[in-house]
Amino acid sequence: MIGIIDYGAGNLRNVYNTLSRLGYESVITNDTEVLKNCEKLIIPGVGAFEDGMKGLRENNLISFLNDWVKDGKYLLGICLGMQLLFDKSYEMGEHDGLGFIKGDVVPFDIPKSYKVPHMGWNELIINQTDNIVKDVNNGEYVYFVHSYHADKMNDEDLIAYSEYHYNVPAVVRHGNVIGMQFHPEKSDKTGTKLLLNYLGE
């Protein structure tokens, strides 16, 4: 059973439907008694960082996630879910994150000729080999929708990036904690490979 964490953010059902299509049973819930019996967890979501952390806090999920990660269990953050894995965000103020991966979340600082949000298909560039990007080649496309991105992170945690005026972290990993800034559930065959790699860890 894969646990999809319900903390008030959007896009949970798309992830659930994709997992079902891949043959995996999953549950959307904020009940820690249910989540603790899951094999792996996913934090999907679109929305604001502050609201995301508030949703986790109000559902008493932060201490649960801390224990989950300390126990060496697998956690995947998608889009906003990935951003919540970092130390801090500067989206409409300054907000503490979960702190599972070193780094900050910052707004794009790019010329006006580039549109924000960074939305649509963009190429993945592999920074280092890892099981999470097994069978994924440089130049495969994934689907992004985001206005903020990870920054000041350790290079050893950066698995893959995309270029949008500069290098934008796309797949990150620190041990059993993994993040994908794009939407694998909307990224066709490449997204399917990435999700299956996570589910097969």
Describe the structure.
- The structure is a single chain.
- The protein is α/β, with parallel strands linked by helices.
- The chain has a single domain, classed as 3-Layer(aba) Sandwich (Rossmann fold), CATH 3.40.50.
- Helix content is 24%, strand content 33%.
- It has six helices and 14 strands.
- It has helices spanning 12-21, 32-35, 49-58, 62-70, 80-83, 188-199; strands at residues 2-5, 26-29, 40-43, 75-78, 86-89, 95-96, 101-107, 118-123, 125-126, 141-146, 148-151, 158-164, 166-174, 177-180.
- The chain has an eight-stranded mixed β-sheet. The protein has a four-stranded mixed β-sheet with strand order 6-5-7-11, with helices on one face.
- Helix 1 links the parallel strand 1 (2-5) and strand 2.
- The mean pLDDT is 97.
Features of the shown structure:
201 residues; alpha/beta; 6 helices; 14 strands; globular
Give the total of beta strands. 14
Strand content: 25-35%
CATH topology: Rossmann fold
**In the CATH hierarchy, what is the superfamily?**
Class I glutamine amidotransferase (GATase) domain
Rg (CA only): 15 Å
Enumerate the strands of the largest sheet in spatial order, edge to edge or round the barrel: 2-1-3-4-14-13-12-9
Q: H/E element string?
A: EHEHEHHEHEEEEEEEEEEH
What oligomeric state is this?
single chain
Distance between the termini: 14 Å
**What's the helical proportion of residues?**
10-25%
CATH hierarchy, class: Alpha Beta
Which outline best applies?
A: globular
Report the sheet with the most strands, covering strand number, pairing sense and barrel closure: 8 strands, mixed
CATH architecture: 3-Layer(aba) Sandwich
